[in-house]
Amino acid sequence: MSFKIAVIGGCGHVGLPLAMAFADRGCQVISYDINPVAVDVVNSGTMPFLEPGSGSVMQRIREAGTFSASTNPNVLTECDVLIVVVGTPVDEHLNPDAEAVPNAVAALSPYLRDGQLLVLRSTVYPGVTRLVHRRLVALGHKVDIAFCPERIAEGRAFTELYSLPQIVSGTSESAVARATELFGCLTAEIVETTPEEAELAKLFTNTWRYIKFAAANQLYMIANDYGIDFEKVRHAITFNYPRATDMPGPGFAAGPCLFKDTMQLAAYNNNNFTLGNASMMVNEGLPLYLVSRMEKNFDLSQMTVGILGMAFKSESDDIRSSLSYKLRRILKFKAKEVLCTDEYVVTDSSLVSLTEVLDRSDILMIGAPHPGYRHISPKVPVIDVWNLLGNGTVV
Ligand SMILES: NC(=O)c1ccc[n+]([C@@H]2O[C@H](COP(=O)([O-])OP(=O)(O)OC[C@H]3O[C@@H](n4cnc5c(N)ncnc54)[C@H](O)[C@@H]3O)[C@@H](O)[C@H]2O)c1
Fold first, then answer.
1. Residue whose CA is closest, atom 19 of ligand 1?
2. Residues lower than pLDDT 70 in the chain
């Protein structure tokens, strides 16, 4: 079955790969986005960010003529399916904006047509799907409303869009049936739930990961405070021991999703989420912890510190909510100078080359564990919480 689809927020990190995947499966797809720069970049056949595997897909869908991007909302009326995947960040006081998706949908109201399927795909504050339903009914719209959360990880979109089971929920039976048929274009396995279950499933997924990273980071700090290499302990625990294979290594648990979704869940539960809030303290506290440990052995005020990797994770160009930037802020206050580099990041003109950082730094820190840094042989100490260089994690 082929659909005519508009993805709202369709030039973003998850909207664009989704739109491209549907177009590659023969659907006619328009990425609608309010960012004209991103729309122009996409229409020129270029990705606005790194996503492995995107190049060949982009080439195919351009040749097939199944994909384009637009800032013109009139394109929405012609489509059978509208998929909303706009950003849903928390504010500077960690409050979720429960209106982010309802507001985006309200802006679409003049372009909606009876009989369309509206799929919400952003990670939403629980209750948003029913709220959108109520508001659209009040405006007299007769559309089917589904909530089908996105669960891909950036950098794995073009494998995971086809391999992950899709959670499908809706406010009517026909919404569920239509969304099931839609996502059948991409993936074989569908898990059906109510909207409330699906909203929690997505938040619990990210929160679970965030708590696991926090547990590992706190255990790392305990071992490290006793001068014990956590990676040796973790190896001892996990080696051929199936009940512990999911224990993560220590590192910066950052990026645009895990932290903010844990805060969304805390707000939803009346700010009563001890594990989530504790995880935030541990994960967000790791840069400060590392610097305070360094200060025990080094006079940072006399040193140039180099940070290798500014993206929020390995092999990514995404610096949103990256803890490397928090690390930089702390070090700028404490050190003589801070030099930062990242071969993937193209959006920060303050970054310098890897060679300059290696030549000029008195001490190095691995911010994002990009594989290229494995091969450096620095003559200065390296603070490597990730154990990327294999020399242990003790600071
Ligand atoms: N980034 C991830 O790895 C990931 C994974 C799963 C789910 N999610 C969720 O997906 C959603 C989108 O995240 P993202 O990382 O792609 O965000 P993003 O900021 O990269 O993309 C959002 C896009 O929406 C556009 N936009 C904003 N308001 C709009 C409007 N009213 N109409 C049309 N376009 C609009 C923006 O210009 C941007 O291009 C969030 O809810 C996020 O939690 C993200």
1. 87
2. none
